[in-house]
Amino acid sequence: MVRWSPLDATYGAEIEVRHLRYFLAAAEHGSFRKAGLAIGISQSAISRCIAHLEDRIGASLFHRHAWGVSLTYAGQRFLPRARKAIRTIGEGANAVASAGRSEVGRVRIGIYSSIASGFLADVLHSFGQRHRRIRIEMIDGNPAEHVAAIRQLSLDVAFITGMREWVDCEREHLWSERVFVVLPDQHRLAAREDLEWRDVAEETFIVSETAPGQEIHDHLVRCLADLGRHPEIQVQQVSRDNLVPLVALGRGLTLVSEAMTVAQFPGAIYRPIRGEILPFSAVWSARNDNPAFRRFLSLARAMAVTAASSCPNQSVVL
Questions:
Q1: Given the DSSP bridges, would you call strands 69-71 and 62-64 parallel, antiparallel or unpaired?
Q2: Are residues 146 and 291 in the same domain?
Q3: CATH code of the domain containing 207
């Protein structure tokens, strides 16, 4: 003869959460009446629900007595599984609620600017202090790569230079940084406090093959073309971090945004280009419903407003 076991998998899809809750309450209190009082429903409702559960399982879970109820053998075997099921459901609900409140999760950020200092570094630090359980992933790349990833929702947000609008994306200007020329410390212009484009129009520049090399190249061409000059720009097969040491070795000059100037390299110095301000915008998809990202964007916006109010007269050069 084939006996039913409470371990059979076939009954699981038919059992509702309320069945498990009422079963556990009755097992804990040893009485349908006391279980009903604890939950806030009638004894008859508890009794009907337990009977319904037993019908679905195909076995009696309780012995009924005049003084209350006690678990049958099947009920004893079902008890730990019911507790585990309720605990799993509760943990799952808490996890979803935490994600919805952006207490946990992940934010994937495409970057162009250095995170050594400046506005973006401040935002990342503040967000990390407030949301320690949210993981931040930083991805280097050029704007086209970042925007493509944003459209595919494989990147939450990218911080990109300029004020360009991108199709199928939202964009908001958040902060600006001064533009600096990196010089060897023995260069003829090293004694100057700041520079103008005409001062470096005849210089050789170097850029990295990787991001943001192409953006620096385009910026140099655009700015020096206004002076009627076509700059000599050499592409180096090195990362951004190794470009400044090449400047120190006399291989050419390069440009960096203000956030990068906190990094000191022997033999290299930074000098700002007078009046040259580089805007940075956040770019994201309106379809992105990642609550952790939305919390991050909200904080960045709030900090941008605070920063703008402290420097109301800063102009932006596009």
A1: antiparallel
A2: yes
A3: 3.40.190.290
Structure tokens at 287: 């379809």
Pair 158, 283 in one domain: yes
Domain extent for 250: 105-310
Both structure tokens of 135: 């993981």
Residue 226 CB: number of other CB atoms within 10 A?
A: 9
> Residue 180 is encoded by which pair of tokens?
């600096």
CB 259 within 8 A of CB 118: yes
Q: Write out pLDDT tens, residues 158-192.
A: 998 888 899 999 999 999 999 999 999 999 999 99
Domain count, the chain: 2
**Is residue 267 packed enough to be buried (19+ CB in 10 Å), middle (13-18) or exposed (0-12)?**
middle
Residue 151: is it exposed, middle or buried by C-beta count within 10 angstroms (0-12/13-18/19+)? middle
- For residues 200 and 250, state if they share a domain: yes
Residues 197-241 pLDDT 10s: 999 999 999 998 877 778 888 888 888 888 888 889 999 888 777
Query: 225-283 pLDDT, tens per residue?
Result: 888 888 899 998 887 778 899 999 999 999 998 988 988 899 999 999 999 998 999 99
CA distance 203 to 188: 11
- In this structure, the answer to whether residues 110 and 94 fall within a common structural domain is no
Helices 118-130 + 291-310 axis angle, to 10: 130
* pLDDT interval class at 70 (50, 70, 90): very high
What pTM value is reported for the model? 0.63
- The answer on 152 and 68 residing in a single domain is no
| Residue 4 DSSP code | P
Burial of 128 (0-12, 13-18, 19+ CB in 10 A): exposed
Map tokens 């040893």 to a residue: 30
**Token pair recorded at residue 302:** 């709030």
